[in-house]
C-alpha cells in the first residue's frame, strides 16, 4: 500500500499544481456563496452519476434474473435465489458516490478559507468520480446479467461469477480511494 501511495505522490503534486494554476486563472471576485453552491453541485454529481449507473446496472441484471427465473419455471427447475445477489451488485457504487459527496461537501465548509479557484478541483473530482463509478455500475450490471443467465442454466460457477463482478467493482473502489486521497490533500492545501 505504501508503494502505491509513494507512486501516487508525483501525481498528487501535479494535481495540486494544476489546481493552483486553475485558481490563478479564475477571477478572484467569485462570491463565497457562489463557490459554496458550485461545490454542493459537484458533491451531488458524484452521487447522481453513480446512482444513474447503479440504476442502469441493477435494471439490466434484474431483467436477466427475471428471464432466467422464467426459464427455470418453464423447465420445472428450482429458481435460484442467488440471482438476487447478482441483481443488487451494482448498488454499491451509489454508496461510494455518497461517500465522495460527503467529503466534497466537507470541502464546502472550508471554502471561505480556500482560494477562489478551489471549487474547480472539487467539481472535477465530484463529476469525474461520479461518472467513473456510474460506468463501473453499468458494466457490473451487464456482467451480472450474463452471470444470471449462466448460473440459472447450469447451477454452477456462482463463486467464480461473483469474483468476476468484484473485479468490475474494483474500478469504483479505486476511484473512491483515489478521490479520498485527492480530496484530503486538497482540504489540507
Number of domains: 1
Number of strand elements: 0
The CATH H-level superfamily is lithium bound rotor ring of v- atpase
Low-confidence stretches: none
Beta-strand residue percentage? under 5%
Put simply, the count of helices is 6
CATH-defined fold name: Four Helix Bundle (Hemerythrin (Met), subunit A)
> Sheet bearing the most strands, described?
none
Annotated CATH architecture: Up-down Bundle
Mean pLDDT: 85
Helix content: over 70%
Q: Would you write up a description of this structure?
A:
With 189 residues, the protein is mainly α. It has one domain (37-188): Four Helix Bundle (Hemerythrin (Met), subunit A), CATH 1.20.120.610. The chain is built from 6 helices and no strands. It has helices spanning 2-25, 32-74, 83-88, 92-109, 118-154, 158-188. Helix 4 runs antiparallel to helix 5 (118-154). The mean pLDDT is 85.
Set down the secondary structure blueprint:
Elements: H1 2-25, H2 32-74, H3 83-88, H4 92-109, H5 118-154, H6 158-188
Helix pairs in contact: 2-4, 2-5, 4-5, 4-6, 5-6
